[in-house]
Every structure is written in structure tokens, then in C-alpha cells.
UniProtKB/TrEMBL annotation:
Pfam families: Creatininase. GO terms for biological process: riboflavin biosynthetic process. It comes from Kitasatospora sp. CMC57. The keyword Cytoplasm does not apply. NCBIfam families: mycofact_creat. The gene is mftE. Its cofactor is Zn(2+). Belongs to the creatininase superfamily. Keywords: Hydrolase, Metal-binding, Zinc. The lineage of its organism: Bacteria, Bacillati, Actinomycetota, Actinomycetes, Kitasatosporales. This is Mycofactocin biosynthesis peptidyl-dipeptidase MftE. Gene3D superfamilies: Creatininase (3.40.50.10310). One of its GO terms (molecular function) is metal ion binding. InterPro entries: Creatininase-like_sf (IPR024087), Creatininase/forma_Hydrolase (IPR003785), MftE (IPR023871).
Length: 239
């Protein structure tokens, strides 16, 4: 699926800024990048929108680097039941998310393909099931997620640094607290049984100490490079 830039006009393209005649011209020669996030607690110092903001930023960077990409409005809700013990978390659950992704990607058949950039680890299972089914239906779809340390998987130094780079005014650094720094694999049995509140009273898995914007920019650059490599391997040469 080798694609050429869809327009000589400056990008990146976002569906929110297009009309349907513009989309009709662009879609057959472009890939739709959909940011998948969540609305869930991120400790006492980060906003509920961390996962969505990171996914949206990475989709924007992908579109800036590849003129054949159009960014869809972000999906701000996901499967976040494990965070139910923390007020403000909103979750649609695994089954609803899987169905949503199936119908969403099916509705994007005018595009040459769809890339689902997921910023929330809790979406992984329904995302995998949806992508498997969509590919069996003959649709071109790629799912990708940023990686991070297993002992710093939620609201720790990694996500705090990323948010300091993206939206520093949303980070309440004075309220940042160390959470449970045990590796995620070791925590999973207790987490699955009792949710995140069973393993971390403050909602943090990791330690935000030392987080800064420079580290956040390096993380975003590394994630962008990994996303571009995955995209190019899936989409084919970009001219």
C-alpha cells in the first residue's frame, strides 16, 4: 500500500478541519489515524485525559511526517474498569469498546487504511480482538501503542514527563506522589481481582520524581520514531 502525499497544501490534515468534499478527495489516497485514549484517574497530579492527549499528539506527529495521513478526532473513552475505585473515571468496558472499534473502522472504508494509536494499556485486549476481526474481513488496519517501563506504568515519571512536554499547565507537580513501583506483571493478579485501588491507594504505578519536560520531549520523539517505523512497515514506501 505505497501512498503518496495527498496534497501539496501544508498539513498535517485533521478531519475536524475538513469538509466532506475535501475528505472525498483525500480519503482514497490517505490513511486515517485514530487516537484511542481513556478518561481515567492519573494520580493526584495528572489530569484524566493523559492517555488521550498522548495518543492525539502522536497521531499529529505521524501526520506531520507522512503527508498521506489524516487524523481523526480522538476517542476519549475506553476500557478503564480497573480504575473504578477512583472518582471521575469513565469507562465503556471491553465489549463496548470492541464493538465501537469494529463499527468505527468499518465506517472508514473510504480511506486506504486505518491506524489505531492507543494510549491506554487497558484497551489492549478489545483492541486486539477488533483488529483481528477487521483484518479477517479484509480491511487494512494497524494498531500501535507506546511502550514504557513495567515499574512505571501509570502516572509515574514517564507519563508525567510526557505531560510536562505536552501541557505543563495541567501537571500539579506539588501534588505528585510516589506510588507502587512493583513491576506490572507481578501486580496483575491483585489488580485483576481488586482493581488499581487494591495495589495503589493514590492511583500511581511508578514514581513521578525527576520528571521534566526535556525527558518528555525525548520520550515523544522515541515514540514517534517507533510509530513511524511501524507505519512504514505496514503502509509500504512513502514517496
Amino acid at each position: 500500500m505505497a501512498l503518496e502525499p495527498v496534497s501539496s497544501e501544508p498539513g498535517p490534515w485533521r478531519l475536524a478541519g475538513l469538509t466532506w468534499p475535501q475528505a472525498a478527495r483525500l480519503a482514497p489516497y490517505s490513511v486515517l489515524a485514530v487516537p484511542l485514549g481513556a478518561t481515567e484517574q492519573h494520580g493526584p497530579h495528572l489530569p484524566f485525559t493523559v492517555d488521550t492527549e498522548v495518543a492525539d499528539a502522536l497521531c499529529g506527529r505521524l501526520a506531520a511526517a507522512r503527508g498521506s495521513v489524516v487524523v481523526a478526532p480522538a476517542l476519549p473513552y475506553g476500557s478503564s474498569g480497573e480504575h473504578a475505585g477512583f472518582p471521575g473515571t469513565l469507562s465503556i468496558g471491553q465489549r463496548a469498546l470492541e464493538l465501537l472499534l469494529l463499527e468505527l473502522v468499518r465506517s472508514a472504508d473510504d480511506f486506504a487504511g486505518v491506524v489505531l494509536v492507543c494510549g491506554h494499556g487497558g484497551n489492549a485486549v478489545p483492541l486486539h480482538r477488533a483488529v483481528t476481526r477487521l483484518r479477517a474481513e479484509g480491511r487494512r488496519v494497524l494498531a500501535w501503542s507506546p511502550s514504557g517501563p513495567s515499574d512505571d506504568s501509570h502516572a509515574g515519571r514517564t507519563e508525567t514527563s510526557a505531560m510536562l512536554a505536552l501541557r505543563p499547565d495541567a501537571v500539579r507537580t506539588g501534588l505528585a506522589e510516589r506510588g507502587n513501583t512493583t513491576g506490572l506483571a507481578q501486580l496483575l493478579p491483585a489488580l485483576r481481582a481488586g482493581g488499581l485501588a487494591a495495589v495503589t491507594p493514590n492511583g500511581v504505578l511508578g514514581d513521578p520524581a525527576g520528571a521534566d519536560a526535556d525527558e518528555g520531549r525525548r520520550l515523544l520523539d522515541d515514540w514517534t520514531a517507533a510509530l513511524l517505523a511501524a507505519y512504514d512497515g505496514w503502509a509500504g514506501p512513502v514517496r
